Amino acid sequence: MGQNWVETETAGCDLGDVRLNRRLGARLVALGERPGKSLPKAFQHWSNTKAAYRFLSNGNVSEDKILEGHFTASALRIQTTDGHCAVLSIRYATMTVRPTIGKQRKYHHQNIQIIRAEECDPPVDRAPSSGS
């Protein structure tokens, strides 16, 4: 997977420092090469994993700032389409529910997957579509 998509998606992203923007691109490339993997598996080496955690704990880095570039790139893609285009904001999370102490041998933990989708910028004549 090339780096072209990373440059497109992060062009509108400003973390306040050119080095942070460059590191974001490097992190996204690594995650894009191993989708669905945990950070240690995606970065494959402890030093890279530790660097990713340091990057994410930086005060200038936030979910909103990271997604800003993606939203800008999405808006540009929408402007090039004819008519209205539906854009969904999708959030995904996994939550592990463990049995109470003393019941862990009898009952296994459960992984709950939560997916939430919401339409961004719906037409003015109707409410946004959403679901979970």
UniProtKB/TrEMBL annotation:
Keywords: DNA-binding
Residues in Transposase Tn5-like N-terminal domain copies: 3-61
A Pfam family per the record: Tnp_DNA_bind
Any GO molecular function: DNA binding
InterPro entries for the chain: RNaseH-like_sf, TN5-like_N_sf, Tn5p-like, Transposase_Tn5-like_N
Designated name of the protein: Transposase DNA-binding
Top-level taxonomy: Bacteria, Pseudomonadati, Pseudomonadota, Alphaproteobacteria, Rhodobacterales
